[in-house]
Specification:
Layout: E1 2-6, H1 15-24, E2 29-33, H2 45-50, H3 52-63, E3 68-73, H4 83-102, E4 107-110, H5 134-160, E5 164-167, H6 178-188, E6 192-196, H7 208-214, E7 219-224, E8 226-229, H8 231-237, E9 253-256, H9 264-276, E10 282-285, H10 294-305
Parallel strand pairs: 1-2, 1-10, 2-3, 3-4, 4-5, 5-6, 6-7, 7-10
Antiparallel strand pairs: 8-9
Length: 321
């Protein structure tokens, strides 16, 4: 497996400065945001769509530093109930797939999206309960009227461009666990799989190593981000948490630097579970720890993860007969 970095955390650096920093950490790969939830500090997507020279310069800056580009990330609410936001978000998705193809990539990362209520409004409506009964009706109509038509088309578009779509299962989106992700895969096709980020699974009560087993064969990319759970606050108020991020010290859970939520043994077991499924791709660090400085957190993550990542398959020693 290779160690990479989702470069949005270096948003105060220029593209070349951020690449120099990533190379200086001894990383293998970078993942770059193209818009939507990402401010895209290192990517001018429209220019990359138009200009072969811009694409050559973009890739040259990466490869000249001994790095590879693991994926482009256009995570956003592709089913946003606000018409203009939805139009912009979907345009970024389609342009990201086009550019990824031109750059020789085979993975684009995004999220499934979340529509609003079927009778209108501009706020997403994430259905996670079956009572009152209106929730059930809302969820059924979302999948029938919004999720299925869009992802059928978006899946065909990805297939036409030989592109794997790596969905980040995230609370607040219609595909937030393996069951809903596989439901989406049935609609979009086998090129749709997971960008598996364990930090989004723990707050929903899932065990990521079990999720790896449940998604064997359709994990395209992995994020390395940890979650710390306050057991006392979770026992008192549960894991359904709506306090804002600036109250991280009060919440029942918060995103943490790798190793500050779960220890070395857990991460060893996680990487072993991935290897067991045949995954040998990029593990891309994502830093959203408000308890620690971002560069400090990244450097601690590199020191923590590098010794734990399993080597290429040809280096694995076969058992003796």
């Amino acid at each position: 497996m290779k160690l990479g970095l989702y470069m949005d955390i270096l948003n105060d650096m220029s593209f070349t400065e951020a690449l120099d920093y990533a190379a200086g950490l001894g990383l293998d790969a970078v993942e770059i945001g193209t818009g939507n939830f990402s401010a895209a500090p290192h990517c001018q997507l429209d220019e990359l769509v138009r200009s072969p020279a811009a694409r050559d310069d973009f890739m040259g800056a990466i490869t000249d530093r001994g790095l590879t580009l693991s994926a482009l990330n256009c995570s956003g609410n592709l089913l946003d109930p606000h018409p203009e936001r939805r139009r912009r978000c979907q345009q970024v998705y389609y342009n990201t797939v086009r550019v990824a193809r031109e750059l020789g990539l085979d993975i684009v990362i995004t999220q499934s999206g979340c529509p609003g209520a079927p009778d209108g409004g501009t706020y997403p409506n994430w259905v996670t309960a079956t009572w009152p009964a209106e929730y059930v009706e809302c969820g059924r109509r979302q999948w029938a009227e919004e999720v299925t038509p869009f992802w059928r088309e978006a899946g065909r578009f990805a297939a036409d461009h030989d592109m794997k779509i790596a969905i980040e299962m995230h609370h607040g989106m219609v595909a937030y666990n393996p069951r809903s992700l596989l439901q989406l895969r049935d609609i979009a096709g086998d090129l749709l799989g997971a960008n598996l980020d364990p930090s989004h699974l723990w707050p929903q009560g899932m065990e990521p190593t079990v999720v790896v087993q449940g998604l064997a064969g359709c994990i395209w990319h992995v994020h390395a981000k940890d979650t710390g759970i306050d057991p006392n606050e979770a026992a008192l108020n549960g894991l359904l948490e709506i306090r804002p991020w600036d109250q991280s010290f009060e919440r029942s859970w918060a995103f943490r630097t790798v190793g500050y939520g779960h220890g070395e043994l857990w991460w060893r077991q996680f990487f072993s579970a991935l290897r067991k499924t045949g995954f040998d791709g990029v593990v891309s660090m994502e830093h959203e720890d408000r308890w620690m400085g971002r560069l400090e957190g990244l450097e601690k993550s590199v020191d923590f993860l590098k010794p734990l990542l399993l080597n290429d398959q040809q280096d694995v020693i076969a058992p003796r007969a």
